[in-house]
């Protein structure tokens, strides 16, 4: 069910006059927004000793593993809600694509640009709240997709568990190109949250209790992973200079492009939804007198293919291998203080 350029109806007649890009009203934040926060996960005895009393969402970013049982209740509560309402009000009046645009505007409402803070020293204290917030934002954005809302609750949870981190990464890479422009690529600058950014060449981990040699290996592998994201995803996105409508279209298609994660009835729902947002994007181009956009859509979709390939390459790559080995060594050293295990690098 991979989204291709053919899914958008190309080269229809358009108005001959120039139009400004359509501006979408941003709703006021809801008073109950704080109710959507993620509860602090419980501890785990299988991870680094230093994080036994810490929130484990940061561990997901480093180790690509997390026990989602700790936040499943909160996700279920969010996914069972009718927030935002689809029955009445401004949100209900929007087309499928512009519902996603509205969600994107909402989660980016606090995004800093010129005053964003660079935090090249990454510690648990700074990253724990960051990862909690991004998990929440991804869930909120998901609830602005009618396809996601229409699938069964168990499927919502399963798909979210499988894809939320990659959705977040993809969205942050695109946001980085908006904030830093060409410097996102040339200087390897990435916005990791609405408040913080990193510069890859200056990045280092400062995590108490973990041996420096293990942190060094993990950092090297992470940088290799992130540099691929910059070169293969951020670079073409920075050249495209997407509108928010195109960003919303791209992010939702990034989800739909993971067809192996969307099966059965959910597949059919998402397939129909794909066609509806393709029609919405065509209408956006028509109203804004944007012609011959087939090649533009193709370039956009190529970034999805690149991001997905990076993810699957990494599943069997050195970044995950080294961090898993580091984790195993830390646990073993707790059991046997006399042994000095080394990280095995494949």
TrEMBL record:
A UniProt-annotated Pfam family: Hormone_recep
Keyword set, alphabetical order: Receptor, Transcription, Transcription regulation
InterPro entries: C.elegans_Orphan_NR, NHR-like_dom_sf, Nucl_hrmn_rcpt_lig-bd
Domain NR LBD: 53-340
SUPFAM superfamilies on file: Nuclear receptor ligand-binding domain
Record has Transcription as a keyword: yes
Domain of life according to the entry: Eukaryota
Keyword Ribosomal protein in annotation: no
Segments crossing the lipid bilayer: none
PANTHER family in the cross-refs: NUCLEAR HORMONE RECEPTOR FAMILY (PTHR45680:SF30)
Protein name, as recorded: NR LBD domain-containing protein
Native organism: Caenorhabditis remanei (Caenorhabditis vulgaris)
Taxonomic lineage from the root: Eukaryota, Metazoa, Ecdysozoa, Nematoda, Chromadorea
């Amino acid at each position: 069910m991979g989204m291709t350029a053919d899914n958008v109806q190309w080269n229809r007649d358009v108005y001959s006059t120039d139009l400004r890009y359509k501006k979408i009203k941003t709703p006021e934040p809801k008073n109950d927004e704080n109710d959507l926060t993620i509860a602090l996960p419980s501890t785990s005895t299988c991870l680094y000793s230093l994080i036994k009393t810490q929130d484990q969402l940061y561990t997901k970013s480093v180790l690509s593993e997390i026990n989602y049982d700790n936040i499943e209740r909160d996700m279920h509560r969010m996914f069972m809600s009718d927030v935002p309402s689809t029955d009445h009000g401004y949100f209900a009046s929007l087309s499928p694509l512009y519902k996603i645009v509205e969600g994107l505007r909402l989660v980016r409402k606090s995004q800093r640009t010129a005053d964003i803070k660079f935090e090249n020293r990454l510690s648990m204290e700074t990253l724990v709240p960051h990862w909690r917030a991004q998990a929440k934002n991804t869930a909120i954005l998901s609830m602005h997709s009618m396809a996601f809302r229409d699938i069964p609750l168990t499927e919502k949870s399963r798909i979210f568990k499988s894809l939320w981190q990659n959705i977040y990464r993809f969205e942050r890479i695109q946001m980085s190109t908006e904030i830093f422009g060409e410097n996102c690529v040339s200087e390897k600058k990435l916005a990791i949250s609405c408040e913080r950014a990193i510069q890859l060449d200056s990045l280092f981990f400062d995590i108490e209790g973990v041996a420096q040699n293990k942190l060094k290996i993990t950092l090297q592998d992470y940088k290799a992973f992130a540099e691929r994201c910059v070169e293969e995803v951020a670079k073409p996105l920075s050249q495209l200079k997407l509108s928010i409508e195109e960003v919303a279209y791209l992010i939702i298609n990034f989800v739909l492009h993971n067809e192996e994660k969307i099966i059965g009835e959910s597949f059919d729902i998402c397939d129909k939804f794909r066609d509806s947002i393709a029609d919405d994007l065509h209408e956006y181009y028509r109203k804004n007198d944007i012609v011959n956009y087939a090649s533009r859509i193709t370039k956009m979709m190529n970034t999805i293919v690149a991001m997905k390939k990076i993810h699957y390459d990494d599943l069997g790559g050195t970044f995950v291998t080294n961090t898993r080995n580091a984790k195993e060594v830390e646990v073993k050293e707790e059991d046997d203080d006399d042994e000095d295990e080394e990280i095995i690098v494949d």
